[in-house]
């Protein structure tokens, strides 16, 4: 059995998780939808999640407590993202596509289950059973907001051990995963996903010509940073209110997020 998995460690990202699930349903995926949650997620939110996800799985929190490295990243709240390690322990699934709760799926991406991370669980090269897209800020690293993996207890315990012994260079899950799957940048083509599977519009840099060229090929949008789509103000007609630091392409993508929210979630989450 194969599944899309996301993670919710608090109620604040609930709108994101619900929109993500509905965007996957709209893409007519044939795969299971699962969400990992921690004890801090409230009962009303759990009920909403259960209405759209096939499985709601409670797991324990893992925090890096890496104050120094998180300060360097400028995101002190991301220590809790090490909880994402639990994805690799979901061995009830033969293959997983993980998506952060602040992503939006724009088209069917079930092809990832056939074309990415096809290495054997018995292979000594762990990089062959993992695939991800390059990070916009440092393309020799992958962005861990979207990845494909074959869950295995071996990798789960390996990540736990690395986290406890070496820590994570950015204080969050991305630094740890890049250290563990350190051969990613030199790996096979099937383990390096195109940027269109994890497009990260940023306030500091936007390559507008590329967005115009490839916008019809976008598969997954990842709203990185500490300001999320559900925090944007909107006009009475539903159009998002532009922010001073926002590019035209990022405004367009946030509007698409809100369109899914209005059509399938609505109300007050």
From TrEMBL:
InterPro entries: Glyco_trans_8, GNT1/Glycosyltrans_8, Nucleotide-diphossugar_trans. Gene3D superfamilies: Spore Coat Polysaccharide Biosynthesis Protein SpsA, Chain A (3.90.550.10). CDD domains: GT8_Glycogenin. This is Nucleotide-diphospho-sugar transferase.
């Amino acid at each position: 059995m194969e599944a899309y998995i996301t993670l919710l460690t608090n109620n604040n990202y609930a709108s994101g998780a619900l929109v993500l699930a509905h965007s996957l349903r709209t893409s007519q995926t044939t795969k299971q939808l699962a969400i990992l949650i921690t004890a801090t997620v409230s009962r009303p939110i759990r009920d909403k999640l259960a209405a759209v996800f096939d499985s709601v799985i409670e797991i324990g929190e893992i925090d890096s407590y890496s104050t120094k490295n998180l300060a360097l990243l400028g995101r002190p709240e991301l220590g809790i993202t090490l909880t994402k390690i639990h994805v690799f322990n979901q061995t009830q699934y033969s293959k997983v596509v993980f998506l952060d709760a602040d992503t939006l799926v724009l088209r069917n991406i079930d092809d990832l289950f056939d074309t990415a991370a096809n290495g054997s669980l018995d292979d000594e090269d762990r990089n062959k059973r993992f695939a991800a897209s390059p990070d916009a800020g440092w393309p020799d690293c992958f962005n861990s907001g979207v990845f494909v993996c074959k869950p295995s207890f071996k990798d789960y315990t390996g990540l736990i051990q690395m986290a406890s012994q070496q820590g994570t260079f950015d204080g969050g899950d991305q630094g740890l995963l890049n250290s563990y799957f350190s051969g990613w940048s030199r790996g096979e083509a099937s383990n390096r996903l195109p940027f269109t599977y994890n497009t990260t519009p940023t306030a500091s840099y936007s390559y507008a010509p590329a967005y115009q060229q490839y916008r019809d090929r976008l598969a997954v949008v990842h709203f990185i940073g500490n300001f999320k789509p559900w925090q944007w103000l909107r006009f009475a007609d539903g159009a998002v209110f532009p922010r001073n630091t926002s590019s035209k392409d990022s405004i367009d993508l946030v509007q698409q997020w809100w369109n899914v929210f209005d059509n399938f979630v609505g109300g007050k989450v």
